[in-house]
Design brief:
By secondary structure, the chain is an alpha+beta fold. 33% of the residues lie in helices and 31% in strands.
Length: 127
Amino acid sequence: MEVTTHRGTGPLQQVIEIGPHRILTDVAPQFGGEASGPEPHDILAAALAACTTLTVNLYAKRKGYALDEVRVGIRHGQEGAAYALHRTIHYIGQLSDDEKARLTEVANKCPVHKTLSGQINITTEAN
């Protein structure tokens, strides 16, 4: 799947197209934008949160765990030389401590987590 972007209607607004889906991204007014959508780093954090909840829900369903809901929060920002993502997971349901621990192990193996934790190669072509 290819993701494309192009200028939106605001001074710095961008339209992200992912297949048939469209998402706006922007920056805050203090940076020249209009805050008409999440900033790009927010979308990155959202990808980790969404992948975590999807992966945990799929695993819990397959194992028959009494997981009613999983909520994930991501705090993110620059910390020294590194960009940091701090994830908090809240499991809602009748789960044992062992089941919660296993779900956390599974969360750490979600595809986006693995991608962000591994080596990433970016190639650029310009024309």
